[in-house]
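Sanity check. The docking grid for glutamic acid depends on where the pocket ends up, so I'm generating a full predicted complex first rather than guessing from homology. Inputs follow.
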Amino acid sequence: MATSTRFQPVLDEIAAAMQPLLGQAGTVASYIPALARVDARQFGIALRTCDGEEAAAGDADTPFSIQSVSKLFTLTLAMQAVGDALWERIGREPSGNPFNSLVQLENEQGKPRNPFINAGAIAVADRLVSHARAEGGSAKARILALMASLAGEPVGFDEEVARSEAETGFRNVALANFMKSFGKLDNDVAEVLDTYFHQCALRMSCRQLARAAGYLCRDGAHPIDGEAAITSERQTRRINALMLTCGTYDAAGDVAFSIGLPCKSGVGGGIVAVVPDRLTLSVWSPALDATGNSLLGMKALEMFVARTGLSVF
Ligand code: GLU
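Predicted complex below; grid placement will be based on this.
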């Protein structure tokens, strides 16, 4: 792996600018103990260019709970598995409602607005369970295999996080049962939720995530083995479009305005961002703002686009 001489100083500068701000504002997700006890005074940033150069600074190699960033990768697997049929069950509109809203799901007869709200990701997990079963495998094993292949090294689930998600995920259980009642889930609710809770519990570092998302800046080509296709070019464009419009909870409009890059965030404080045809970037800092996005992560992305002028607009 070669270090990017262009970007390494930029990431060093951003990590240094974040140091005095660590632990000063925002709140760490507290809905499960394993996330509540994460030290807020951490910040990592890493990127990988389309040519395979890398740069990293701060806590870029510290693994964290990627939470909803996983929705990006399970969507990718489902697009590989079922293609356009996926959109019979899931929409492509920003929700304008909390990521775990039940009201909207009822109004829309169990069809989630998009694959990045919880109901949408649970519907994606249902597709993965069906597809894996038809081929004699398990959806969880496929998710792990994809992540390890994309990151170029083994990746694991944090079983404590997965267990806590299952013990406290009452609203996710409600969303899944709701969809089941509308005939919109094919599989056993418990199995679908087990898959969803485990994907949320994937532990990865910024460096691994920046690598893993690499196909999104390379028209779908595998980030390490450039010969293999992860998605088609068209699917990659669509995933990037969904990230831009729906990837950062109710802040997607603001993020498009102030950062201008497709992003997917999670309540563990991680964010993946894509500069199409150039690079993928990952930031992590556990303290969240009121919209559920990493406070310093968003600040760092703003700094990155200001320093480099890279944006899709
Ligand atoms: N495991 C969380 C949930 O389903 C994911 C939250 C998130 O990162 O958006 O509630």
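Relevant for the grid: The mean pLDDT is 96.
Also worth noting: Residues 79 and 86 are 7 Å apart (CA to CA).
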